[in-house]
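Hypothesis: this fold can be encoded by more than one sequence.
Test: take the structure tokens below, design a sequence, compare later.
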């Protein structure tokens, strides 16, 4: 039987990063993955393919709607070849997934293909697709089995017309009318892909606003901009039934007044969150506790109820984000190696890759109010930037919340072109406990979208933005 210092179950951004860090720290490491393709949800059916389709559909929209503004005339018809777009997305996924295989070889990590199932606290059975089982032994085990799409109990996902994100990433036709249940990250990102390609998109959201966990100013602005793009929003709607009649899908819901309403389309994307995934893991055999919501229970060192078994990523508490999973992978590897690493969970940024992009870090205004913290707000609109006017991306703003007495930055919320990248400045500043004035006194290249961060910081410090 092969023995290892560490065995990692699951090869997503949590698992593969944990494996690499363990190997870097000199541990003999095994990685067990159910599928032949490494990289987990993120690389195969999540972050990477969705961004590839967002980019392709954005090019199409630019060609159809915006080239003319820039003095570019297209003489022929601009058409979408969805099959080719999906093929390109698959080739992006394959290149990325192959990169992980390369990294496993480079770091001498032994990869096992099969379902990892606990035999006891130090032995894992690996059930291979051909039916045989191989058992390995490991001193330490990291559970990184990720998550799967959630569903509502009364919805039958036929995966043809009533679909999850996984199917939405490989549709064979552009829907005529896509009904999206859940106005969160997946619903809006994939909704925007198909909106740009010509679908009518109707979002049905249970809460009173889309992206309900982010700062409400971002919800408001994103709603306004997406409505201009043609999205239809129905917030405060409780979905009660989804029916399929041939090629038609009917979504029934109760609105705020308690009235029954119906939405008819040809596809329905169910994007109401994801659930932690531990099926087939046989966690009981090792004594690993799983809570009522299906999450593996962990302490601050991400140690489970069993001392030598750790868990990271979507399968434990916290935001279901690839970079959060990766930070946790690094942390656990370093804990096993006897180091004292730390993750600042307050500074895990959240991004929605619609256009305009939405990005956020730290506390929202609602959270500060709830906690009774006194704060100042500085806001700067993208439209006041020369860079935004040059590109034509004038929607959005940067909002900085800083402590009323110390001026320490407590939260940064932005919507606009390339804010997914701009948020890194806010994370860095907040990690070093910068004040809004610190940011306002740093030179920002001109002309850039980043100047909005400096201007919002000036507004938060002394309400003295230069260009407004
Ligand atoms: P996963 O990536 O889910 O990996 C878990 C792996 O474990 C899988 O490969 C699975 O096959 C394997 N596994 C499970 N059980 C076993 C077993 N018993 N034996 C062996 N292998 C097993 N996050 C972002 O930060 N940015 C984004 O832009 C983003 N976009 C997304 C878009 C979509 C459409 C979706 C669905 C998700 C997106 N996410 C994004 C979320 C991100 O994908 C997850 O947070 C991330 O993948 C979690 O990583 P993980 O390592 O915990 O688990
Ligand atoms: P989400 O939590 O972002 O959004 C789900 C939405 O569905 C929420 O707005 C919620 O209020 C709504 N909802 C819940 N129950 C409902 C009901 N019965 N009827 C109508 N609406 C309902 O979840 P998601 O969009 O499915 O994404 C899942 C996870 O994947 C998220 O945790 C997210 O972090 C991750 N993800 C991240 C990115 C990114 O970082 N850009 C992209 C995609 C997915």
């Amino acid at each position: 039987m092969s023995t290892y210092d560490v065995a990692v179950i699951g090869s997503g951004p949590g698992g593969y990063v944990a494996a690499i860090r363990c190997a870097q720290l000199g541990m003999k490491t095994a990685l067990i993955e159910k599928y032949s393709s490494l990289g987990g949800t993120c690389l195969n059916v999540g972050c990477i393919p969705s961004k590839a389709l967002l980019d392709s559909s954005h090019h199409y929209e630019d060609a159809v709607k915006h080239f003319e503004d820039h003095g570019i005339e297209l003489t022929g018809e601009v058409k979408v070849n969805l099959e080719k777009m999906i093929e390109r997305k698959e080739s992006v996924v394959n290149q990325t997934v192959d990169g992980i295989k390369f990294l496993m070889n480079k770091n001498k990590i032994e990869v096992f293909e099969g379902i990892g199932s606990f035999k006891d606290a130090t032995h894992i059975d690996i059930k291979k697709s051909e039916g045989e089982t191989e058992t390995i032994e490991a001193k330490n085990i990291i559970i990184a089995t990720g998550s799967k799409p959630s569903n509502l109990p009364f919805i039958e996902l036929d995966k043809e017309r009533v679909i999850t994100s996984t199917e939405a990433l490989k549709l064979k036709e552009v829907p005529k009318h896509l009904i999206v249940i859940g106005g969160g990250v997946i619903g809006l990102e994939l909704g925007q892909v198909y909106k740009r390609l010509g679908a009518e998109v109707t979002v049905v959201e249970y809460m009173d606003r889309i992206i309900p966990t982010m700062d409400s100013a971002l919800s408001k602005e994103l709603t306004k901009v997406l409505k201009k793009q043609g999205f239809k929003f129905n917030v405060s709607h409780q979905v009660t039934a989804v029916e399929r009649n041939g090629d038609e899908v009917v979504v029934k819901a109760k609105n705020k007044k308690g009235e029954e309403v119906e939405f008819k389309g040809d596809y329905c994307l169910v994007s109401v969150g994801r659930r932690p995934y531990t099926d087939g893991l046989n966690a009981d055999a090792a004594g690993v506790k799983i809570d009522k919501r299906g999450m593996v229970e962990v302490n601050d060192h991400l140690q489970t109820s069993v001392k030598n078994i750790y868990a990271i990523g979507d399968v434990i508490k916290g935001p279901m984000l690839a970079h959060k999973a990766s930070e946790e992978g690094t942390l656990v590897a370093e804990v096993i190696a006897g180091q004292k690493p730390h993750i600042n969970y307050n500074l895990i940024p959240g991004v929605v890759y619609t256009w305009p992009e939405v990005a956020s870090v730290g506390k929202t205004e609602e959270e500060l109010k709830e906690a009774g913290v006194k704060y100042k707000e500085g806001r700067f609109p993208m439209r006041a930037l020369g860079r935004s006017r040059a590109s034509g991306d004038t929607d959005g703003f940067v909002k900085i919340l800083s402590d009323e007495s110390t001026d320490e930055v407590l939260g940064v919320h932005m919507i606009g072109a390339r804010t997914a990248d701009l948020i890194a400045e806010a994370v860095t500043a907040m990690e070093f406990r910068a004040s809004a004035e610190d940011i306002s006194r740093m030179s920002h290249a001109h002309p850039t979208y980043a100047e909005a961060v400096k201007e919002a910081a000036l507004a938060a410090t002394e309400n003295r933005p230069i260009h407004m």
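The longest strand covers residues 133-143. The mean pLDDT is 97.
Hypothesis status: open.
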